[in-house]
Amino acid sequence: MRLVRQVLALFDEYQSKENGKHTLRAMKENARQGFWNGARPPFGYRTIEAGRRGDKVKRRLEIDTSEAETVRMIYRLHLEGTGAGQLGIKAIAHHLNHAGLRYREGRRFSTGLVYALLTRETYTGHHWFNQTDSRSRQRKPREEWIAVAVPPIIGEQTFRQTRASLTSRSPKVTAPRIVNGPVLLTGLARCATCGGAMTLRTGKSGRYRYYTCSTCARLGKTACKGRTLPMTLLDGLVVDHLAHRLFTPERLSEVLVEHFARSRGAAEALARQAKEAGRALTATEEAIRRLLEMVERGIAPLDDILAHRLGELRQRRDELTRLQAATAHQRRAPARPLAPAQLAAFCAAMREKLLSADLSTRQRYLRLFVERIDVDDTEVRLCGPKDRLETSLRSGTDPLSESVPSFVQGWRPLPEGNGIFLSD
What we know:
- By secondary structure, the chain is of the alpha+beta class.
- 52% of the residues lie in helices and 13% in strands.
- The chain has a four-stranded mixed beta sheet.
């Protein structure tokens, strides 16, 4: 009897797996045809009847006007704010709750809910089905996702700008105190002696504000002799230097010429890297082809082990494809210098942002082009990413709408420096 029960249990398990496989296949086909598979619709949408197939009702997503307006408001608050700069996720949740707006079933908006709404690709008109495994809850490879066309609530450009902004504000990239801090150079200014951060100190009940070495303030002059500068002085020097010395057509042209020369010098190494990635990509695609051929011929069943191996190979293929594309992008050195009119227009736009924009916008532009500010006794040294200058120039769009700062080779030439010299 024990043997019989084991055999029956095996048959039941096999039948359950077969039923699950056929059900998933039917749901995938339903999604390919643009129908909704029965889960609760995302916030901002509702389901409507789109037809019948026998006794089964086919449904599609339709925009829920009241919820959709809340979604659009959340994106506007993050990108435009309420007049005093962009709002972060926590500030948006507070704003919505304070205004009496609620999520479904009267739930108050939380930071998790707001973040989920700001990162949901469905709102651009592209919903994805079959993203995760129903049992393991693991994310499936993107090529297994099924695209479902839905009515868009926001535009693609708005969604890209929001994702870039969220990435730049991530605690893994920039500390929260830096994102929302009222100090222009927070997170950038460093003491040249010890490398410690230059933090805000006040005097006369806040009437006077200074940048001072945090190491000296915490541990005393035995740890670092320290230095203190008036905030208005250092802010003005840094902004003035960027606006009137770096962002001029002549100086920017010199910086980019040096950058191009170094980029071409690394072309041979990039070519080798791209060639190796190409060979590995070919081998990976051949391995995937052999596995699929074995399954099609019935030589090996597509069990969990084989499916896991196939997923690993596909992930490896995606990584190699991205590496190959990245090396190809880096190898594309410009054939001719940038047009003088393009340089002049870019410099004028950057000067306007740095000199006339609100504090939040100036902070973001500073962090885009400046990686570190070393404050010494007689000079202030600014370092920043050269490739960000090139990318922003050639894109012809606002650099903050494309991506977030990256940590790459600085634009400050060595050894003579590109410093701002201060009087004693």
